Amino acid sequence: MTAYTLAHFEGTDAAWDAAIASLPCAHPLQTSAWGNFKQRRVGWQPEKFVWRDPDGAIKAAAMVLTRRVGLARVMYAPKAPLLDYADHALLERALHDLERLARRRAALQLKIDPDIVQHTGEPNTDSWQDDPNGAAVVALLKRRGWRFSPEQVQFKNTVLIDLRRSEEELLSAMTQSKRRKVRYGARHGVSVRAATPEDLPSMVALYLETGQRNGFLTRSAEYYLDEWRSLMAEGLAHAFIAEVNGQMAAHVVLLAFGHKCLYFNGASTSDNALRKLMVADALQWEAMRWAKAHGFTIYDMWGAPSQLDASDPLWQVWLFKRDYGGKLTWHIGAWDYAPMPALYGLYMRGMPLLRAWLRRRSAAQSESSEA
User: Fold this and answer.
1) pLDDT higher than 90, residue 182
2) Which of 142-156, 242-256, 298-312, 354-368 has the lowest mean pLDDT?
3) How many domains does the chain have?
4) Pair (202, 257) in one structural domain
5) Same domain for 258 and 223
6) Which residues, 6+ apart, have CB-to-CB distance to 349 below 8 Å?
7) Cα-only R_g, the chain
């Protein structure tokens, strides 16, 4: 059995990104740019760890974020650890070391949410498939005392589009209705261009407008300005704008790293005349074309329902995404390791109250800005 050793990663930010880019499950939320932003803006403290084989090669990695909540600590390794999840010996070693780290830090919890596939396709259809490795990873987590988290920070499920196909094949995989929508905008005055830092205030305003219209929780304008500006400056984020006669009608913010391009944020106008030009569809297609042209093999549409019915909060999102010809992908989701189960239980019971307060504050801020 291969002996893997854990070590702090002491190299530069660029060296970290280079080290993890080729690892299985490499993800934008494990990059230095993401950790630095979360540290500066929210107060998370990033630490970088690697697991090496006897030859010194890095076989696994995790950037772990730690933050104080009162007198306690919470820890989170977004989309980590990065490794080959079919190598259960390596996974066991990584989990063992992360558990020990959480115990030594007296953390309330350590959360992980790696992109490990559990199922693909739509339930009760021929497309539905179980992933045996996903089931094995879930069984291992349970055996080691991890629990499925009631707090799913990132989207658990998503739609993945394979960009290794030609543009013609990508279009053919879409429904006929989606192909018409994708092509409609270009024929009716919709143009798409790369965003610049000068566009960010208008983009943020449109994003907050979209959040209010569609009822999803948003942060402050300053948060998004800082996030998008810093991630664009570090080359992780790339933004595109759909315009009609020079007027911004929609935008997307992509996070691109490793082999994956992630549709991270998006917004569209409330102007029905502009919406009828299918600006969002034209923009998504141009974003996919950009990702493909820059060598990314997966376009991750970032978010899909947990229940495929109208009761799910992401149902309307699914109706927009499903016709692009991607694969509905169900991940194992976020799992928590709790060294102190009783305190963890108290913390989890308090989280719904905190989220309700954040929603009330967001609504109050929106009303205040309109007064």
Assistant:
1) yes
2) 354-368
3) 2
4) yes
5) yes
6) none
7) 21
